[in-house]
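Hi there, hope your week has been kind to you so far. It would help a lot if you went through both lines with me. No rush at all, and the record is pasted right below:

***
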Amino acid sequence: MAGRSVTANFFHPGSRFGLYRPQSCSGAEIDLFASLEGIVNRTRPRIACVNRRDREGKFTWLDLHKLSYGMVSGYDAILTYRTNVTGLVVTDPGQPHTLNLATTMAGVNNELICDPSCWRP
């Protein structure tokens, strides 16, 4: 299958995707939004990150499956799907390995990975 692209078909008809772009996000925000994406998409795909560096093109798989989509900010996506999240795992920027631990804990407990710089009371 060299040179061929294979795509799965697991979308529900009528699904609308929320897309966010990470270009203006910090690394800490990308971790935060990626953890939300993992939680929200666990039952079915609903949000995705689009990146201008994607080889296939930003919207290829959405267009291929004829899915409707709209752009959202990462923070708006958190507000939209907040009922899917049970809490936060706060990392320690002074201890980079805490990100690995936070990733595991967040995935098991439906929590968001949160660097203290992302906290906005």
